[in-house]
Amino acid sequence: MDDFDYSVEARNVLNKFYGVDRLVYVEGGDDIPFWEIVFEKLADFSVEFESVGGKSELIKLAQAIEHDEADYLLAMDSDYDSILKSEVNPSIIRTYGYSIENTLIGTETICKSLKTLLRLPAKETPHDICQQWMFSIENDVRKLVACDIINHADGLGLSVIPDTSDRFMKSKSSCDLCEMKIEEFINELDLAFDKNVVLSEQNRVLSCGFNFLDIVRGHFLSSAALRFLRVQAKRLGRNISISKDMFYVAMLTVFEGNFNREHRHFMHYKEQILSVPKIS
Q: Quick check: is 263 in a domain?
């Protein structure tokens, strides 16, 4: 999107310029393919997407929506808002979990991405290994996620969950998180987290109907999943370098085929898009 700063009034008529019913603003250009799939499958109105170059810019646009001044829509990551029960606005579509990656990444996505990227026959695709890895990492990130939610809610300003999972792996060649490394890291943070409070936060996540792979920061989850794919490629004797971009494209391709009523987040997005206010 150009740097020109449109007024609210100008943004409200940009949809006419594009010849669509609604304009949808997203955080970055890489987010657009995901939201295109979601809206194409669920919306009964036409849309055009524009990226604004950052979450802070989306928040500015959200202020006009909250004051009932805007006709455009926003599509954005929930972060921890779904846990902390932030106010809901029908013109702001949010991801089910922390971010886009949390909707994209699941056992089937990883298996099919692995099958595609490594050109594996179906019988050689390690579905059980994928499923077990997902189960294991979901269990291993619980305490990290709980501490990060407390950090966010209390405004502590600590860096609890990094963008990459590398520092918490058992070794440089492993795709499994090390419980001891996680425990040591939490203990080394500037503020001691009360064990009862951390346990209470874990229970709150579960009581809200989420699992911890829904709520862990998306970049962290994506980096762990990419590492899993690379480890499996080596284990299976496939000499291929899998980049972040390759993995993201593979995930989007799988998601486009799998995003239906059977997808665990489908109803969340459907209910939000059905709730979008009509323009008179």
A: no
Domain assignment present for 183: yes
**CA atoms of 250 and 104, how far apart (whole Å):** 10
Greater pLDDT, 165 or 4: 165
| Alpha carbons within 13 A on the beta-carbon side of 219 | 6
Indicate if 151 and 245 belong to the same structural domain. Answer: yes
- Report how far Cα 266 is from the mean position of its chain's Cα atoms: 14
For residue 179, tell me if it sits in a domain: yes
Structural domains counted in the chain: 2
pLDDT per position as a tens digit, 109-129: 999 999 999 999 988 889 999
Structural domain span for residue 66: 8-96+268-274
Whether 20 and 63 map to the same domain: the answer is: yes
d(CA 111, CA 181) in angstroms, rounded, equals 27
User: What are the distances in angstroms from CA 278 to CA 34, 38, 44, 94, 249?
Assistant: 23, 18, 11, 18, 33
For residue 3, being part of any structural domain is answered with no
Domain co-membership, 107 together with 60:
no
What is the residue type of 155? G
Radius of gyration of the chain (CA): 20
Give this prediction's pTM.
0.91
Among 35-39, 65-69, 73-77, 166-170, the least confident range: 65-69
What separation in angstroms does the CA of 39 have from each of 48, 166, 194, 273? 10, 34, 42, 8
